[in-house]
Design a protein that fits this description.
- The protein is of the alpha/beta class.
- The chain has 2 domains: about 90 residues, 3-Layer(aba) Sandwich (Udp-n-acetylmuramoylalanyl-d-glutamate--2,6- Diaminopimelate Ligase, Chain: A, domain 1); about 210 residues, 3 Solenoid (UDP N-Acetylglucosamine Acyltransferase, domain 1), CATH 2.160.10.
- The protein has 4 helices and 39 strands.
- Strand 21 and strand 22 form a beta hairpin.
- The protein is flat and about 100 Å long.
- The termini are far apart.
Length: about 350
């Protein structure tokens, strides 16, 4: 349902510069927006599109220059305001009602152990299995194919998408979201090698996902050998991420796709790991660390560091090294030419 810019601005805490009576129905990227759309500018790399955008209005910071004739919604944080505009105009995904379900909540095609506890308003789809002693809070949504193991504890308003597996004794806080085909609490990669054979070590711990954690599709988080593998409140994973046994990740971290963290790593709060970052085991990464894509972290990292490269070094140095590496072939030719010249000069002398 559309809103006038005046209405939307009040919801977003923005100030309208232009015709506030115009109606917007949706949100779009600045280079694709058309009439009836609202867009945003948060990265100056996209400033050039202000000249050509067909959006009805743009969310923009107070100090950002804007061509005449564009209606602006001025706000301190355009990206967050755009997020809120998406909520206002599009809302979050609506979950379907379970099929073959007389009470609107629990499908008759689900298998639920008689000792399991399921809170009010939780909906369970066909093909879900909930094992003995599992406790699920209120307002959760379990899509088809979800497996909830023995003695799992799950808070309120969690969403588990199709084919998520939560192994026994795992603990999920409230408002946890786990996307399709992710596995929580499988055995850690723990083996003792003796006389040429790898002998499995019992994995007696569990996994804890704190409140407001979101796990992308195809992720795997191993249970601890002893104690807990823990993911802190508000931390978000993209897709295809692997977390080793006994690792602790702090609050409000961001892990981009294909990150791999070995076991017994201590990751601080507000850490950002770019795509394909690899982390060796038994190290510590301080609060606020940022790692560029494809960083190889093989030792402790001080809080607040910005790093890149493999092995990880200061990000600026890593970028300079990468640029230099682009010319290695040319440099090798020059060195060979100089070596031949030196050899010739030595022979002549």
């Amino acid at each position: 349902m559309g809103q006038t810019l005046d209405q939307l601005a009040r919801s977003l805490g923005a100030t309208v510069h232009g015709d506030g009576a115009q109606v917007v129905n949706g949100c779009a990227a600045i280079n694709r927006a058309g009439p009836g759309d609202i867009t945003f500018l948060a990265n100056r790399k996209y400033t050039r599109f202000l000249e050509t955008t067909e959006a009805t209005a743009v969310l923009i910071a107070p100090d950002e220059a804007c061509p005449e004739g564009i209606t602006r919604l001025v706000c301190e944080d355009p990206y967050f305001a755009f997020r809120n505009a998406m909520v206002e105009l599009h809302g979050f995904r609506e979950h379907p009602e379970p099929m073959r379900c007389e009470d609107g909540r629990l499908s008759e095609l689900a298998v639920i152990h008689e000792t399991a506890s399921i809170g009010e308003g939780t909906r369970v789809h066909p093909g879900v299995t909930i094992e003995q002693g599992a406790t699920i809070g209120t307002g959760c949504h379990l899509y088809p194919g979800v497996y909830v193991g023995k003695d799992v504890v799950m808070g309120n308003d969690c969403i588990l998408y199709p084919n998520v597996t939560v192994y026994d004794r795992s603990e999920l806080g409230s408002r946890v979201i786990i996307h399709g085909n992710s596995v929580i609490g499988q055995d850690g990669f723990g083996f003792a090698t003796h006389e040429g054979a790898h002998h499995k070590i019992p994995q007696d711990g569990n996994v804890v996902l704190e409140d407001d954690v979101e796990i992308g599709g195809g992720c795997a988080i191993e249970r601890a050998t002893m104690g807990s593998t823990r993911i802190g409140a508000g931390t978000k994973f993209a897709d295809l991420i692997s977390i080793g046994h006994g690792t602790t990740i702090g609050s409000h971290c961001l892990l981009v796709s294909l990150v791999g963290i070995a076991g017994s790593v201590d990751v601080g709060n507000y850490v950002v790991l770019g795509g394909q970052t690899g982390v060796t085991g038994h190290i510590s990464i301080g609060d606020g660390v940022q790692a560029l894509a494809q960083t190889g972290i093989v030792g402790d990292i001080e809080p607040g560091s910005v790093i890149g490269g493999a092995p990880a070094i200061d990000a600026d140095m890593a970028k300079r090294n990468a640029l230099a590496a682009m010319h290695l072939s040319e440099l090798a030719k020059r060195v060979k030419k100089l070596e031949r010249r030196l050899a010739k000069d030595a022979d002549e002398s």
